[in-house]
Write a structure and sequence with these properties.
The protein is an all-alpha fold. It has helices at residues 3-27, 29-38, 44-64, 68-86, 93-115. It is globular, with a radius of gyration of 15 Å.
Length: 120
């Protein structure tokens, strides 16, 4: 496989979690809004809309390579912020695992920021 194919496969694999989360937000907005409210974040409807745009738009940008470094940087920041906001009960091992997953996702996305080649 050439490097472009491997890069595409990697980007699609990174995008899957954001597509999945977007789908859940679209099909269950009330559950998502309740989760946002329960975390103590203000302006739940605004946070809902912003997170949907970031996840869906970012996932599409990853897959198609559009503004890749910018999209990856936004998704990396989003992953860290949402990890800290929603997986901060460190006495719960599952929460620690999910926080570390978000950090690992951010790390992979930052690799795109650092090393992704712009489309010719």
């Amino acid at each position: 496989m050439n490097t472009q194919t491997v890069s595409l496969i990697g980007r699609v694999l990174m995008a899957v979690i954001f597509f999945y989360s977007s789908f859940n937000k679209i099909t269950g907005p009330e559950e998502t809004l309740a989760l946002i409210r329960s975390s103590g974040l203000p302006f739940a409807p605004v946070a809902y809309a912003a997170s949907l745009m970031v996840e869906l738009g970012g996932a599409l940008a990853l897959v198609f390579g559009f503004q890749l470094r910018i999209a990856a940087a936004i998704l990396a920041a989003f992953s860290v912020v949402t990890g800290l906001a929603f997986h901060n009960h460190l006495a719960d091992q599952a929460q620690v695992y999910n926080l570390l997953k978000n950090f690992a996702m951010a790390g992979g996305l930052l690799q795109l920021v650092a090393f992704a080649r712009p489309k010719a």
